[in-house]
Structure formats: structure tokens, C-alpha cells
Design brief:
359 residues; mainly alpha; 16 helices; 0% strand
Length: 359
């Protein structure tokens, strides 16, 4: 398994470089001038010439590509044209929000989707099965922006002043702040260093940070703010997982070894859980990995509707402003995340099905 993992990591290197090259080319193929997109009416000819020189955009494209790849190899994602800040610091601020939202959405999808698929498969062609699949089709069909607005309308307006009220936007209530855990414990971390980036990154996971610091008020508030966007984001993955679980489990329950287990007197629970579900999980795990990889890329609509400063919104704003360093840096990180998630999924196959030999 170790050899397989190393081989997959080595094969992923050219994939990541290919994504870097494509992103570099496509970012510069977008119509428009970064100077005019960022400065607007202030973008005079003289100002734009200085702007182009200052940001190295006057150099030949191959020179820009060489500088870009060299900086990435050093772990330097450059400086944002729009914000004049290191892209790494922007990632440290934005990525935790997206990861929290993605994991929360996927958790909801798994907790509801897999049991729904199991119930639907074991009650095949019954009213429960039909109702579950109709719900799954509705979940796939509902636009996220519409569902997000409806959830905000119902839980923030109609249920206002009730115990069921939920905040419609933001990560924390105004006036409430999450003190970084390194400050709480009196750690001395020099700003601008790699160590600072790491501890700041983890402190921006508000739920994790509040657990480490014992700030339960912040944790409750962060969870309440995460519920509506996570539910809106989870509907499509939930429906896909439920349908895939049902389809895969139905195939397994019709195999010879399952019929043999039934003939030997195994209980219905043993047949479904021990003999059926584990063998039916391979395609489900594949779908889960793909959904998590997609969610880590940022949910633009969900983040916009609920006022969350995540990767999706930042990438959208960077594309409209022609902020090349942010586009390139975030794309590289997202592509590496995708490769890592798929590697974990592949390694899990051997655990779920001992017949699979990765080496």
C-alpha cells in the first residue's frame, strides 16, 4: 500500500503542473486589463503603465510563467494585485471557512443520505422507496441559490423570536470574536513566518479553535451560523449519495453470496450490514470523494447568499478583477486537495474490500 501511495503521489506531480500551466494560460486569456478592472476610472495610461511594471505584467509570458512556477516551488504564491497582500495570508483567512462549510455539508449528506439509501434499497418498490427517491430527485433539482434564500427567509424571518430562529449570514454574531488559541495559551509566534501561517490557519477554524480554548459560547454561535449554509450546500450531495447507495446496495443484495447468507439463517440486519453494505460502499466512497473535492473548491452561490468569506467568493472576485496571483495560488491548492482526497479514497478501497490489493 505504501508503494501504491508513493506511486500515486509521483503521478500527481505532472497533473498539478498541468493544472498550473492551464490556469496560467486561461487567467491571461480572460478579456480585459487588470489595471482597468481594479482601478476603474483612475486607470489612466500613465497609471496603467506603472501598474503593469510594478506587478511584472510587462515581462514576456514565458518569463512570467518561469517566475510563477519558481515561486510556487518555493511555497511562495506571490502577492495579490488587488489587495497588495501575500496570497498565502489570504488563503490562511479564507480556506478554513470553506473547509468547515464543506465538511459540515458533507457530514449532513452522509448522515442522512446513506441511511436513506439503505432504507430505500431494503424497502424496494414500496411507498417508502418511492418517497425517498422522489425526495432525492427534488434535492438534485433545487437550485442552491433558491434553497439558500428560502432557508434564510423561513428560519431568519418567519421563525424570528422563536427557539428555531437561525442566523442568515456571517460566521459569528456581531460583537462576538474567537480569540486565537495561541494567544489564549500565551504562545509567541512571529508574524510572517511559516509557523505563524500554520497556527493562524488552524485558529481560523472557529469551531476547532473554540473547543481548544474552551470558549463554548463561540462554538455554539459558530455552529448556529453554519447550519443553514451547510444544509443548503448538502442537498445535492445528499441526493446523489442516497441514490448511489440504493443502486449499489440493490446490486449487492441480488448476488449469490447474499442469497446463501439468507439461506443459512442470517438475520436481515446481518445480511444488509455485514454482507451487503460493506461491499456496496465502494462506489459510494468514490462519489463522496468527488463531492468533497468539489466542495473544497468553494461554493460560490452558498457563500455569497450567506455572506461567508470563503474560497468561492474570493476566486470569483479575483477572476472579475483579473487578480492573477490569487487565481493561480488558490487553483493550485484546490487541485492538490482534489488529488489528496482521491488518493485517500483509493487507499480506502483496500480497507473496505480485502480482495483489492493495491500493491
Amino acid at each position: 500500500m505504501i508503494q501504491y501511495a508513493v506511486r500515486r503521489i509521483l503521478l500527481a506531480i505532472p497533473v498539478v503542473f498541468g493544472i498550473m500551466l492551464v490556469t496560467f494560460v486561461l487567467a491571461r486569456a480572460i478579456p480585459g486589463d487588470p489595471c482597468k478592472a481594479i482601478l476603474g476610472e483612475k486607470a489612466t495610461v500613465a497609471v496603467c503603465e506603472k501598474f503593469t511594471r510594478d506587478h511584472g505584467l510587462d515581462k514576456p509570458v514565458l518569463v512570467q510563467l518561469t517566475i510563477y512556477v519558481g515561486n510556487i516551488l518555493k511555497g511562495n504564491f506571490g502577492e495579490s494585485i488587488r489587495f497588495s497582500r501575500p496570497v498565502m495570508l489570504i488563503m490562511v483567512e479564507r480556506l478554513p471557512m470553506t473547509i468547515e462549510l464543506a465538511l459540515a455539508g458533507l457530514l449532513i449528506a452522509l448522515v442522512i443520505g446513506i441511511p436513506a439509501g439503505i432504507v430505500s434499497a431494503t424497502r424496494h418498490n414500496t411507498p417508502i422507496d418511492v418517497a425517498t427517491m422522489i425526495g432525492a430527485n427534488v434535492g438534485v433539482s433545487m437550485p442552491v441559490f433558491w434553497l439558500g434564500l428560502m432557508l434564510a427567509y423561513v428560519f431568519a424571518l418567519l421563525l424570528k423570536d422563536t427557539p428555531f430562529w437561525l442566523p442568515p449570514s456571517g460566521r459569528l454574531t456581531a460583537g462576538l470574536s474567537a480569540t486565537p488559541f495561541y494567544e489564549v495559551y500565551g504562545w509567541t509566534v512571529e508574524e510572517g513566518t511559516a509557523r505563524f501561517n500554520v497556527v493562524e490557519f488552524f485558529s481560523n477554524f472557529f469551531i476547532f479553535n473554540s473547543i481548544i480554548t474552551g470558549n463554548w459560547e463561540v462554538m455554539r454561535d459558530a455552529i448556529k451560523h453554519l447550519i443553514l449554509p451547510a444544509v443548503a450546500l448538502s442537498t445535492i450531495p445528499l441526493a446523489i449519495i442516497a441514490r448511489m447507495t440504493r443502486s449499489s446496495l440493490l446490486d449487492v443484495l441480488g448476488t449469490d453470496y447474499v442469497r446463501t447468507a439468507k439461506a443459512k439463517g442470517a438475520s436481515r440486519r446481518q445480511v444488509v450490514v455485514k454482507h451487503g453494505l460493506r461491499n456496496a460502499l465502494l462506489p459510494v466512497v468514490t462519489i463522496v470523494g468527488l463531492q468533497l473535492g468539489a466542495l473544497l473548491g468553494g461554493a460560490v452561490l452558498t457563500e455569497t447568499i450567506f455572506g461567508l468569506a470563503g474560497v468561492g467568493r474570493m476566486l470569483f472576485e479575483a477572476i472579475t478583477a483579473r487578480d492573477y496571483p490569487i487565481i493561480q495560488g488558490f487553483t493550485v491548492v484546490i487541485s492538490i486537495s482534489y488529488v489528496a482526497v482521491n488518493l485517500i479514497v483509493d487507499l480506502s478501497y483496500a480497507f473496505l474490500d480485502p480482495r483489492i490489493r493495491l500493491d
